[in-house]
Amino acid sequence: MPKKILIAILGVAAIVFAAYTLTPQYNSVQAPVIPINQPKTKVKQVELVLPNASPITARVEDYNQPTSLWAVVSKEHPLPDAHFVPAGLAVPPVRTRIDKSIAEQSLRSDIEPDVIALFGAAEAAGHSVMVASGYRSYEQQQIYFTSYSRQYGEEAANKFSARPGQSEHQTGLAFDVSLTSRECYLEICFSEREAGKWFAAHSYEYGFILRYPEDKTAITQYQYEPWHFRYVGRDLAKALHDSKLTLDEACPYLQAALTEMKARGAAN
Ligand SMILES: [Zn+2]
Questions:
Q1: How far is the CA of 44 from the centre of ligand 1 (A)?
Q2: How much distance in Å is there from the Cα of 199 to the middle of ligand 1?
Q3: Average pLDDT of the chain?
Q4: Are 71 and 209 contacting, i.e. CB atoms less than 8 angstroms apart?
């Protein structure tokens, strides 16, 4: 082939190639991006607003589920399965009452970082405290409740001890705190000790709430328990602290957030 023809062919090919690559291969009007597989976490993030508290944007937990960090377990809201056992129970690396069973020294391991942070901060503030009682199985709770009922009568016992299947301790998210000296052990006077005051004031910073406050006994249906703390996560704990609502009183707000989450889930 003559050299000139070859150059001409290559030149034409180069022009065609350049024209092709320089021409937009798509419509210049940007089409909206339609996500096909939107991450589920985004759908589950909704705003939760409690009165007198800053709104929180959180992954909404179904408070009806015993595995939920927001699980509501009470006399009126017993565990759906009375024999529920949470997964991942472990003795946290903080002081625990070692003469209790391994099970009762345990809490859910996924909340361990905040358990360590809470007890670390308490120790740093000068308080020698321990987990006196953490997870309790249905059977363990039955033993306690039967024993207290024999001692005080069933009605009186149920003011400070839950029937099996109705105890937060069965979720692995609640514990009773005590001084290592065991002074004021599970007694109201714990609230007057410096450690009791510290826990009441600071536990929310680490995701825990004082579950049975003195001025809410009619709502919680339990006596004032300055030693009983319950994990709900830092966002909700702060919102509950600021709003001064119990977990029971927050139920309608949790339900509203849950309904919104489900509606969004359906829309997606
Ligand atoms: Zn308790």
A1: 31
A2: 14
A3: 88
A4: no
- The arithmetic mean of pLDDT across residues 19-30, rounded, is 46
CB contact set of 42 (below 8 Å; sequence gap of 6+): none
Is the Cα dihedral 218, 252, 206, 82 positive or negative? positive
- Known active-site residue 104: no
- When mean pLDDT is compared across 57-61, 91-95, 144-148, 151-155, the lowest value belongs to 57-61
- The rounded Cα 79 to chain-centroid distance in angstroms is 16
109 in Cβ contact with 88 (< 8 Å): yes
Ligand 1 centroid – CA 211 distance (Å): 9
Q: How far is the CA of 169 from the centre of ligand 1 (A)?
A: 6
Residue type, 20: Y
Sorted by where each starts, the structural domains of the chain and their CATH numbers stand as: 40-267 (3.30.1380.10)
Catalytic site residue from 112, 205, 225, 249: 225
Q: What is the pLDDT of residues 154-207, one digit of tens each?
A: 999 999 999 999 999 999 999 999 999 999 999 999 999 999 999 999 999 999
